[in-house]
Amino acid sequence: MKLFRSGGPIYQYVPGSSPRRPDLEKMVNEFLAENPDRAIFHIKQSTTAIGDNEDFQSETTISIWYQD
Questions:
Q1: Cα–Cα distance measured from residue 48 to residue 62, given in angstroms and rounded to the nearest whole number
Q2: Alpha helices for 7-60 (secondary structure H)
Q3: At 36, is the secondary structure helix, strand, or coil?
Q4: Are strands 39-50 and 2-9 parallel, antiparallel or unpaired?
Q5: Disulfide: which of 2, 16, 39, 60 matches 47 by Cβ 3.0-4.6 Å?
């Protein structure tokens, strides 16, 4: 299993916008490109957010179950 995490303060949060981080997507894509024949069994994503308008933070975790 491989875990990917990204998060931290979100400044200038706009309601309805996505807190997804571009670096998280890049990390997952690089991992998948390393071995395109890797057997992926399961992928899960979890996102949590805390704070208020002045101190809003978010963390996203993606877990990938695979077999080389």
A1: 12
A2: 22-34
A3: coil
A4: unpaired
A5: 60
Continuous segment of H or E residues that includes residue 64: strand 57-67
Q: pTM for the complete prediction? A: 0.72
Q: How far, in Å, CA of 28 to CA of 44, rounded?
A: 12
Residue with tokens 């308008």: 53
DSSP secondary structure code for residue 37 in this structure: T
Q: What distance in Å separates the CA atoms of residue 40 and residue 37, rounded to the nearest whole number?
A: 9
* Unique residue bearing structure tokens 């990204």: 6
Q: What is the mean pLDDT of the chain?
A: 82
Closest CA to 64 of 33, 35, 28: 28
> For the purposes of burial, counting CB atoms within 10 Å of the CB of 6, is it exposed (0-12), middle (13-18) or buried (19 or more)?
buried
